[in-house]
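If your schedule permits, I should be very grateful for your opinion on a structural question. What I wish to show you is a protein chain and, alongside it, a tokenised description of its three-dimensional fold. Would you kindly read the sequence against the tokens and tell me how you understand this chain to fold? Here, with my thanks, is the record as I have it:

===
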Amino acid sequence: MTRTKRTRLIGLALLLTGAALLAVSLLAMSQRLEGHYAEADAPRWSVQPIFDQTFVHAGRKGAVHAAPEAAAPSITIEWGESSVRLPVTGRDDARLPQLLQHQEWLRVLRLAEVKGDQKQLEEGLQSGAIVPRLVVVARAPAPGHDPETWGQARYKDWKYTFLELKADGSIERSEQNYRALANQPHTWEFVAAMNVTPSLHTPAMRASSPMSYPNYGPIRSAIGAMGWTWPVAGLSVLLTSTGLLIVGSTFVAKVSRWE
């Protein structure tokens, strides 16, 4: 086999490999983008944090009391005749007033599902047509590990406790970890959890995730939704172009410099 034929075969191999990768990546990319834009109709949530230790919601009084000096520091949430005590699982900042002290790991939030634009949301809240949820969310380090080291590093195992303060005066409690919540990006639990999650670990800040919270912007969000298809498509174009150049070069007539 001559050198020219060998070069041509290498070029054809690169060309065909690049074309195949391009076809596969573009098909996968279109499917991912289709799913991404379909999620545009998924529920959106308005978040209103409460920073006062006492508050009123749906005609009921609630309060959050801290006992930082106790042998086992805790936070007590009172709602009507019900109460729940949570251990302190994060760093408090005593320099800040009221619930701002605990904002790194615990927050009280009003969550309302957004239907329509901001004006419709505000009108619905004022008229009572939209009744927001009142929830308390607390984040704890990964169980079973030193809370100051591996408990912080293993963020996918962080535990989130949700307390929904119901209109009838009861408190509904549930728990999930980060790993489970990451698969539920449109639930109120996910939205609440992201309010006590360091921004570095929110899915919007992790480039491999198609999720976006807070709003990451349409272009950046779409690129995130493409995932692996974006770099693979770029690589396939490079391979195809290189293959074309190599094959084309074998058809260029050699001209002796002595002629």
